[in-house]
UniProtKB/TrEMBL annotation:
The keyword Electron transport does not apply. Pfam families: HGTP_anticodon, tRNA-synt_2b. This is Proline--tRNA ligase. InterPro entries: aa-tRNA-synt_IIb, aa-tRNA-synth_II, aa-tRNA-synth_II/BPL/LPL, Anticodon-bd, Anticodon-bd_dom_sf, Pro-tRNA-ligase_IIa, Pro-tRNA_synthetase, ProRS_anticodon_short. One of its GO terms (cellular component) is cytoplasm. It comes from Candidatus Wildermuthbacteria bacterium RIFCSPHIGHO2_01_FULL_48_27b. Residues 38-315 form the Aminoacyl-transfer RNA synthetases class-II family profile domain. It is an enzyme of class 6 (ligase). GO terms for biological process: prolyl-tRNA aminoacylation. GO terms for molecular function: ATP binding; proline-tRNA ligase activity. Its EC number is 6.1.1.15. It catalyses: tRNA(Pro) + L-proline + ATP = L-prolyl-tRNA(Pro) + AMP + diphosphate. It comes from the Bacteria. Keywords: Aminoacyl-tRNA synthetase, ATP-binding, Ligase, Nucleotide-binding, Protein biosynthesis.
Length: 414
């Protein structure tokens, strides 16, 4: 992408009226646009990061047998009345609206009920199980607080997977696979070293569930970490005697829940009548689980954790581009040629081909945007047919011959 054509421009100063660090930086660097409190649009740079995160999630969901679908954003109240979750007293984050004829309908905030009802058309025998489906779909939630930038918004894409199994044993095996898949996902996006599998309350479903909690000062949760086992417990349940934890022996940290996995059991299948016939001819309720990740919350967490005083710093697995090519010379032929060549071998490049900007301005923009590899072509580097290469988070600059750059960068792709 030529930067002269990119419609987003960086801003010289931090945006006003935005308190969270992730949103401040992402707005300043042109990744997102604030529509109103808790509602953000994703601009080309931000969209690319989101797509990378969603691709990484998709890959792992497919590996464990997930099939992608897309459920509706408008929700049928009848199904929710059956489960008792339509009432505002039961769920306080509903956005509801009305049809022309005054019938109330809901905007999607989760999908246990509609999916369970839908599955009645497809599951009737033990031969139809297990089934694992997931989606990347927009959720609307009337969140009370919206002070964490893109980490907690009133409209967001969620990856939600739902599992349908014959019994608890089959469910447990899948739950464990999902847990391992989540560990891989958070490793791959660059958060593995600060993300803890955390014991949490299972709410009204099961006694316990697991959250994936990433350490950050921007987090709204408190977790207690066991240094020996590297496991953690959410503050909500730390006092539970059955768990046998001594709070004083654990490390207390602020964290954000980037994902969670839940055992739902037969709660929804029983109320909504999702049954199957087992191999003895007996009718049984389907045993369910749900598994969520917020890609934008992951993106915001990455922004919070890695940013430095100059701007954003993206891990290469999620970066909007792998390389940021800066042309500081008036003769553009070599930079143009390098741009074409890198793209032809599959390296994604943002090419700062803008005229009339100082080197300092281009460097500042590159630091703010945070692409992993900065390549600088100037009259000086051209004299030795080279480019200056610098990793975003390092101070070291290396002179690399132009013809070696494609291989050099390909070895950095993760
Ligand atoms: P929280 O306790 O932080 O409100 P939750 O328990 O409501 O999260 P789920 O309903 O299980 O979370 O959603 C699954 C995932 O979706 C969460 O782990 C998180 O990554 C993401 N998520 C939840 N709420 C939001 C939000 N308001 N904005 C962005 N992402 C969210
Ligand atoms: Mg919530």
């Amino acid at each position: 992408m030529r930067q002269s054509k990119l419609f987003t421009k960086t801003q010289k100063t931090l945006p006003k009226g935005e308190e969270s660090k992730n949103a401040q930086l992402l707005i300043q660097a042109g990744f997102i646009h604030k529509e109103m409190a808790g509602v953000y649009s994703f601009l080309p740079l931000g969209k690319r990061v989101m797509e990378n995160i969603m691709r990484i999630i998709r890959e792992e969901m497919n590996v464990i047998g997930g099939q992608e679908l897309l459920l509706t954003g408008l929700q049928n109240p009848e199904i929710w009345q059956t489960s008792g979750r339509w009432a505002d007293e039961a769920v306080d984050i509903w956005f509801k609206t009305k049809l022309k004829n005054d019938t109330e309908i809901g905007l999607s905030w989760t999908h246990e009920e509609p999916l369970t009802a839908l599955m009645r058309n497809h599951i009737s025998s033990y031969r139809d199980l297990p089934v694992y489906v997931y989606q990347m779909q927009t959720k609307f939630r009337n969140e009370l607080r919206a002070k964490s930038g893109i980490m907690r918004t009133r409209e967001f894409i969620m990856k939600d997977l739902y599992s349908f199994c014959k019994n608890e044993e089959e469910h447990k095996a899948f739950y464990e696979k999902a847990k391992q898949a989540y560990i891989k996902i958070f490793d791959h996006v660059g958060l593995g070293h600060v993300t803890y599998v955390t014991m949490a309350s299972g709410g009204s479903f099961a006694k316990y569930s697991h959250e994936f909690q990433t350490l950050t000062a921007a987090g709204e949760d408190i977790i207690y970490i066991d240094e020996q086992t590297k496991e953690a417990v959410n503050e909500e349940i730390i006092a539970d005697k059955d768990l046998g934890y001594d709070k004083n022996k654990l490390r207390k940290e602020k964290a954000v829940e980037v994902g969670n996995i839940f055992t739902l059991g037969t709660k929804y299948s029983e109320v909504l009548g999702l049954q199957y016939q087992d191999d003895q001819g007996n009718k049984r309720p389907v045993f369910m689980g749900s598994y969520g990740i917020g890609p934008a919350r992951v993106m915001g967490t990455i922004a919070e954790l890695f940013a430095d005083e100059k701007g954003l710093v993206w891990p290469s697995s999620v970066a909007p581009f792998l390389a940021h090519l800066l042309c500081l010379s008036d003769s553009v032929e070599e930079a143009d040629a390098l741009y074409e060549q890198l793209q032809s071998v599959g390296i994604e490049v943002l090419y700062d081909d803008r005229h009339g900007m100082s080197a300092g301005e281009k460097f500042a923009d590159a630091d703010l945007i945070g692409i992993p590899w900065r390549l600088v072509i100037s009259d000086k580097t051209l004299a030795s047919k080279s480019a200056e290469v610098k990793a975003r988070q390092s101070k070291e600059i290396e002179l690399v011959p132009l013809r070696e750059l494609p291989n050099y960068l390909q070895s950095k792709i993760s």
